[in-house]
Amino acid sequence: MLQVPTLPNYQLPQPNYNAVKIDIHNPTVGNTTCPVQQPQYNSQYAPVTAPYYTYPQTQLYDYPQVNNAQPYYQPAVQPVNVNASANATANATAAVQQPVVQQPVAQQPAAQPVACQPCPPCPAVPAPQVAQAAAAAAATVQPAPQQVNINQAPQPAPVATAPQMNPAAPAEAPKVEVVPPVEAAPQVDLNGFIAKLNDPDFEVQANTMEEIANMVNDETQKAKATELLDSKIIDALTNIINTDSSKLAGPTQEQITARQKLMSGQQISDQEKALATTITPMEQAERNKSYAMFTSAILEKLYADEVQKLTGTTVPLTELPAAMTIVDQLKDNPNPMVRTSAIEALSYIQNPEYKKDLTTLFTIAKNDQDKGVQEAATAALDKLNQI
After folding, report:
1. Phi-psi category of 330—alpha, beta or left, where left has phi over 0 and alpha has psi -120 to 50?
2. What is the DSSP string of 242-265?
3. Is 134 helix (H, G, I), strand (E, B) or coil?
4. pLDDT of residue 164
5. Gyration radius (Cα) of the chain, Å
6. Which residues contact 68 (CB under 8 A, 6 or more apart)?
7. Residues 326 and 347 sit within 8 Å (Cβ to Cβ)
8. CA nearest 350: which of 309, 314, 375?
9. In Å, how far from its chain's centre is CA 222?
10. Predicted confidence (pLDDT) at residue 39 exceeds the cutoff of 70
11. How far apart, in whole angstroms, are the C-alpha atoms of residue 367 and residue 145?
12. Mean pLDDT value across the chain
């Protein structure tokens, strides 16, 4: 136990618990029973009742206080530079205290030693560091103390961790990569077919129309042939059908004589035979008209069948592409070979829905002046009656 010597009976000021007024050399914090000598203030100055600084205050020492309420401890705070805080406190105390004038007092009888609780040791502060510590303490703001229940186990210092996902928040939907659609590559060269059909060479036109007909009639290539159901293909075939061949060169009289000999079975020379089998430009144009009508009929039937599969309906005869062009050739073309080809083309696209219209057309064609046209119309009517 610390023995406190007998001190004169000074009037003790009321304790003020702040870091500014603590006596660094002889601190007393809230312990009125410890008769430690306190400095005497000059009576001509009013005692200081408020701190000069307004920043948050904290105690230098955290230990349990005895009161009627539940005892508690101050929470752990960040490390404090004791020398800096002590120097700041001493400097602040010196600033507000005035020189004390010692007054003679009567000697008091010696008091008996009083046992008190030991005061915490005061850190020794070198004098030269007071000014520097005061400046540092003025710029330092101490955190305000928080009350903590002493019965509660000390909590560990918080550790910075990565942010946790809120379990109540909805999970972020996975990102879906949108792939743009890839345009399907065509199976046939549509532009190539169109260019060949519009070629001025009649042989190129004939070979192209034969290729189209073979593709449509081949079951393994019918899926490719559907890409030929294009208006530009139909327009090219229609242009071939409507070609004006009257201005083109036709067979000469020598060619006609050679052909008559060849057809009658007469002996002809090789030169006459070559002349008889040579096709003139006009004849090539008329032949391509027959090819174009038959090729158009093949595509029209394919078109009608595809519509029937997709919609369950039948396209009327008058709405089939190039169908009316073929009918016009049957009625008006002066070449009997072209009229015969028109009958065969219409007979190819026959359908129960078209029976009435086709019967009318073929009946009229039976009265044609050309015997070959009459025979073609009769055969078409017989085929139509079998439906």
Report:
1. alpha
2. T---TTS----HHHHHHHHHHHHT
3. helix
4. 58
5. 61
6. none
7. no
8. 314
9. 39
10. no
11. 122
12. 74
